[in-house]
Amino acid sequence: MEHEQKLADYAMEKLQSIDGMKIYGPKKRAALVTFNLDDVHPHDVSTVLDAEGIAIRAGHHCAQPLMKWLDVTATARQVFIYIIQKKM
Amino acid sequence: MSFNNLDTLYRQVIMDHYKNPRNRGTLDGEVLTVEMNNPTCGDRIQLQLSVVDDKINEAKFVGEGCSISMASASMMTQVIKGKSIEEALKMSEAFSHMMLGDEIDFEKLDFGDIAALQGVSQFPARIKCATLAWKAMEKGVH
């Protein structure tokens, strides 16, 4: 669990430094980060990240009411699990 | 997958249709209105067609979704205008073939900017984005 949490904290820190980045959810969080980048649709974000070997989930996440509440059409989400490694 | 492939997916003409969609809006009067969405990803389109004597005189759309789905809708409304329903359905069939990676005759089809979407066939996860508008059109005229 510690490994995942460290990765999530690292990702949060890096993502926040990107212009136009919007991160959803509370500061204290499980090992995942949900975000949107400017007006780039999350599906486009995920396709570009996929080309870099990074797998994320994009879309509604089966949570349409939440998307409505957040007033977005979709979000991108990176979940951190034990097999994920920091790129050196 | 390389960035070279990404270039074939995100062609400039596609991004232009995404940023400046053609025929975006709604039609008044007696028109066919069809809504279609892709519940797993959240893309949604409302397509309106003005059809007189089996001919599509006007086509407009509103919706939200990724660059591929919105650009595809924009391009489709451009090319189906002035076509008969039969011709539009033939184009839709050809588009599906294009998404499967089949060779098609663009000039014969009067496909306009649509040829730029050819690269989508290399991204199986994105094919449903490109076909959403066409499926809506098919549903509307049937």
Automatic annotation (TrEMBL), chain B:
Residues in NIF system FeS cluster assembly NifU N-terminal domain copies: 10-129
InterPro entries associated with the record: NIF_FeS_clus_asmbl_NifU_N (IPR002871)
Position of the signal peptide: none
Stored Gene3D superfamilies: 3.90.1010.10
Top-rank lineage group of the source organism: Bacteria
Name of this protein: SUF system NifU family Fe-S cluster assembly protein
